[in-house]
Write a structure and sequence with these properties.
By secondary structure, the chain is α/β, with parallel strands linked by helices. 22% of the residues lie in helices and 27% in strands.
Length: 422
Amino acid sequence: MERPAPVNAPIARSAMAYVLAGGRGSRLLELTDRRAKPAVYFGGKSRIIDFTLSNALNSGIRRISVATQYQAHSLIRHLQRGWNFFRHERNESFDILPASQRVSETMWYLGTADAVYQNLDIIEGYEPKYIIVLAGDHVYKQDYEIMLQQHVDQAADVTVGCLEVPRGEASAFGVMHVDEEDRILSFLEKPKNPPPMPGNPDRSLASMGIYVFETKFLIDQLRRDAADPHSSHDFGKDIIPYIVKHGSARAHHFSRSCVRSGSELTPYWRDVGTVDAYWEANVDLTEVVPELDLYDRDWPIWTYGEITPPAKFVHDVEGRRGEALQSLVSGGCIISGSQLRRSLLFTGVHIHSFGAIEGGVILPYARIGRSVRLRNVVIDAGVQIPDGLVVGEDPDLDARRFRRTEKGVCLITQPMIDALQK
């Protein structure tokens, strides 16, 4: 049986984080052909899911479960390698919960709520007092303890994490209509005319897909929803609107619990769900003072720490000098006689001589041949770029060979390279 938390202990010590990490993220195109969106690489060393998991760990939560489904192998392997330090004897747990048809032999996870419902026995076995349901596919830093404290202080049935967004952009989100005390009056899914925030007609409150419940209350709601044949078994479509109508739902502003270092001027939250957004968020990290501070030692982003040698820059002769300007270069990389600008290299990338790369996001263990010129590209892990390839100078040619976005970013995968050589 779970031991009760000490008096005056942080609420996080009585909470479980339940991370929904089963989505494909189809707008990332071929980047998610072999991996779920939460497993996509980000920031040089991390995966996207590491931000949510690090938030939970840094907030003091020591019970974490991750529900997986689509193309789960890469994600599960990463979690096993990088998040295997939780110890039962310290009242800690880290469970990976693939869609294993435990409720029915014909049922995978039908929706976000069903992904929790199918594992109720595991949740009940730990007896957490509170549960915070999280999405595993966004990049942000947040102290969940502050959100948990609000939930308890207001005696809410559910507390919903919300972003303040320009009203003109809110139609892309689920929007909370709230009163002056942040009581949620209605939940509107992608409304054409989003309701404004009280006292701020130009802003709306968009759901972050973060929900806090008392565990016993959530279990009752999931069982009620599971018995409803007309439900889609989804938090945003079914569970939250029901509680808004029949219970007490409160909005929690992300700005109140976001974690910022001294160099981060505004709350940072990104859905890197398109190739353009993914490229921009990674390249933005090369700025002198980026909006997201990955160097904040007070709120580290935990991940699998692969053992690598230092990055290496070689050749110091005119026309063949290995150098990187305003770039991030991870361990194990070798920059051999080429120049980088505004680029981010993940672990183990090898770039050969006489080339130039600007605006490159190059995933682990890619190899770039000689005399290659690349501009505004995302190169998938392990891709072998042949000698002499030029990308980013002829839009029509790029679009015929690779995935070229509306903003001119080219996604390059190994099958695309193989097709060039047939």
